[in-house]
Amino acid sequence: MSGMAASSVAVEHIPRSGVWLAKVVPWIAVAALPLALPGYEPLATQVFVMILFALSLDLLVGFAGIVTLGHAGLFGIGGYTAGILSVHGFTDPLLTALCAMVTAAITGLIFGIAMLRTKGLTLLMLTMASAFLLYEIANKATGLTGGEDGLQGVSFAPVFGLFAFDFRGKTAFFYTLAILFLAFAFLRALIKSPFGWSLRGIRENDARMAAIGCPIILRRLIVYVIASAFAGLAGALQAQSTQFVALYSLSFELSGNVLIMLILGGSGRLYGSFVGVPMFMLAQDLLAKQDPANWFLGQGTILIGMVMLAPGGILGVCQRGVAVIRARRRA
To answer: Domain limits at 92?
Structure first.
């Protein structure tokens, strides 16, 4: 809470026009990426998808205090929903994305009712078990999901009937960026609402929140369903942009990776996903090129170093650096 208070104080010293520009300019800069770096649209699209996925996880981990190792299950549900609908002739990208959100939300509701009355290690194990369950169901239902070979034959109609998904990935780039922007705007409004502040209270001290009449279980269930819907949306965007759905989208490895991305950037800040995801994917690419056989060792070393030396993630380090500079200027 103190870190958030410090950031709000810092923002108060910046003119409103400057704050507005600081929020808008990065989005404009990213939208201009195809002009500056042509050919990188497919990679950037995957980064956008993972940022949205990490945002949905941050809603649980960073704001509600619900730590999960099974979030990929909901991501995969969204991907398979969009992919299966596409294979059976329902190819409108916006409609299939909406169906993916609804399916993931319903799945999150079912699992949430069963899991969210527990806490700590029990909850962690249950979330992991839920993802393993979905993974095995998808693996066995080969006629529907393709099993280990993945769901093939996936294709989607042009966005709004005008913009076809091309091989160079420009349509997917702008389509995914636009949805990420809208999702971020919604989630930002949500966490700044009374509901969002109640989530912070539950994270910090749920007993005190219950004492003042806050429905703890209901609030946790609502946020779990919302996070599930956005994870499903990310999965649908993944299926639409790659025209393929693999079992990896339901895997424990993906759940662990997105949690690492969030820790790397800084959870509970919402912007941490925008920092952690590109940094993780860049580091993963560089480490894999340097040592293809043992790059996991480098990844683990980086994570341990971040947890020990920068527990607030990259944004936490930047925030403390700004605080030190301001303190020296005042002195």
So the answer is: 40-251
